[in-house]
Design goal:
Layout lengths: L2 H30 L1 H5 L3 H47 L18 H52 L7 H31 L8 E4 H16 L5 E7 L3 E4 L1 H17 L6 E9 L2 E8 L20 H6 L7 H11 L3 E6 L5 E8 L3
Parallel strand pairs: 2-4
Antiparallel strand pairs: 1-3, 4-5, 5-7, 6-7
Helix pairs in contact: 1-3, 4-5, 5-9, 6-7, 7-9
C-alpha cells in the first residue's frame, strides 16, 4: 500500500466515523427529543431545531475531523519521521549498517532502499580512498627512505664544502629537508588512514598527565630557543588519565610544535594543566598571528593551512591538528581552538580522568 493510499484510507475512516457520530447525534436530537420541542411552541421549536443542528455539527464533525485527522496523519507519516532521524545520524562509522525497511513497498520503503544503496556506494568510495592512501603511502616509503639515505650519504662524503661547491651543498641540504618533510606527510597519512579503518590499537593504561606536561614543557623550551619565544608553565596539577602514553605525548608535541611554528619571534607560549569538572584540562596559548574567522571551523580538516602558515613556508603539512583531534577523541576527550583578532590562540584539550 502506497503512502497516498494509506492517507486516503485513514481520512476515509475519519469521515466514516464522523458521519456515524453525526447520524447518531442527529437521531438523538431530532427524533428522541422531538416530544420535548413540540411543547415549546412553533417559533421556539424552530429556533431549538437550528440550535441543535449547530450543536450536532460542533460536537460531532469538527472534533472528529481535527483530532482524528491529526492523529491518523501523524501515524501515517511516522515511518517517514523515523527515517529522517535515522538518516540524520548517518556517519562514517555506521555506513555499513542498513536502514530498517518495512517491506510493504510504499514510498517510504522505496526511499529507504534508495538510502541503503547510497550508503553502500559511499562506504565503497571511502574504502577505495583508504586503500589507495594506504597503498600509496606504503609504496612511497621505500623510495623516500632510499633518497634520504643517498642524499645524507652524499653530504657526509662530500665533507666541508668549498666556496665553489657551496651552492651544491645548500641544494643537497634543501633536498634532504624536503625528503624528510615528505616522509612525515606519508607517515601522518598512513596513521590517519589506519585510524579511520579502525586498524590502530591504543593501550589503556594509567598515564600521569603531569609528567607528560612537564616533558612537553621542557621540549618546548628547547624548540623555542632559536625564535627566542618565552614558554611558561602556569599551572600543573597532579592528574592521571587512562590511555596510550605514546599517543598522548604525540598529541602534546603536535600542539607545542604548532604553538612555536606559528608564533611571532620573541613571542610567548603559556601551558597549563588543570582539573575541571572531572576532566583533565590542558590549555596551550600562543601569541601568533591568529586564525582567520572563516578558517576556524575547518582547522581540524586535513591539509588545511592558513595564509599566514603558507606565507612562512613552514615545514607543516596541515595534518598535525587532525592527528591531535583523533588522539583526543580516541581517548574519549575533546579538543577546541579559539583565536581572536589580537593574535592570541588558545588550544584546550579535555580528557576524562582515570577511574
Amino acid at each position: 500500500m502506497t503512502l497516498r493510499q494509506r492517507l486516503a484510507l485513514h481520512y476515509g475512516g475519519v469521515v466514516v466515523v464522523a458521519l456515524l457520530l453525526l447520524g447518531g447525534l442527529t437521531y438523538h436530537e431530532f427524533a428522541t427529543e422531538r416530544r420535548l420541542r413540540s411543547a415549546l411552541g412553533p417559533e421556539k421549536e424552530a429556533e431549538a431545531i437550528w440550535g441543535e443542528a449547530v450543536e450536532v455539527f460542533v460536537y460531532a464533525m469538527i472534533p472528529v475531523i481535527l483530532v482524528g485527522g491529526w492523529w491518523l496523519t501523524r501515524r501515517s507519516l511516522q515511518p517517514l519521521i523515523d527515517l529522517a532521524k535515522t538518516v540524520e545520524g548517518t556517519g562514517i562509522d555506521n555506513l555499513r549498517e542498513p536502514l530498517f525497511r518495512s517491506g510493504n513497498g510504499d514510498e517510504v520503503d522505496r526511499l529507504t532502499a534508495a538510502f541503503n544503496g547510497m550508503r553502500t556506494r559511499v562506504d565503497q568510495s571511502f574504502q577505495q580512498v583508504r586503500e589507495f592512501t594506504l597503498h600509496a603511502s606504503h609504496e612511497l616509503k621505500t623510495p623516500l627512505t632510499v633518497m634520504h639515505s643517498q642524499i645524507d650519504s652524499a653530504i657526509r662524503q662530500g665533507g666541508p664544502f668549498t666556496p665553489e661547491t657551496r651552492d651544491c651543498g645548500e641544494c643537497m641540504h634543501s633536498l634532504l629537508e624536503e625528503v624528510e618533510r615528505l616522509a612525515k606527510i606519508v607517515d601522518a597519512l598512513t596513521l590517519l588512514t589506519k585510524a579511520d579503518a579502525g586498524q590502530v590499537s591504543l593501550e589503556r593504561q594509567p598515564v600521569k598527565l603531569t609528567d607528560l606536561i612537564r616533558e612537553s614543557f621542557e621540549d618546548a623550551q628547547i624548540l623555542s630557543e632559536p625564535s627566542q619565544i618565552e614558554v611558561t608553565l602556569t599551572e600543573c596539577v597532579d592528574v592521571t588519565v587512562t590511555g596510550d602514553r605514546h599517543r598522548l605525548r604525540q598529541l602534546l608535541l603536535n600542539l607545542v610544535d604548532n604553538a612555536i611554528k606559528y608564533n611571532h619571534p620573541a613571542g610567548k607560549i603559556t601551558m597549563a594543566l588543570r582539573q575541571t569538572n572531572g576532566t583533565a584540562e590542558i590549555v596551550i596559548t600562543n601569541t601568533g598571528a591568529g586564525i582567520a574567522v572563516d578558517l576556524q571551523p575547518r582547522v581540524f580538516d586535513r591539509f588545511v593551512r592558513g595564509d599566514e602558515a603558507r606565507a612562512k613556508a613552514s615545514d607543516g603539512c596541515g595534518l598535525g591538528l587532525t592527528i591531535a583531534q583523533w588522539i583526543a577523541q580516541a581517548h574519549g576527550g575533546t579538543i577546541q581552538i579559539a583565536s581572536n583578532p589580537t593574535g592570541l590562540t588558545t588550544v584546550t584539550v579535555r580528557l576524562p580522568l582515570a577511574e
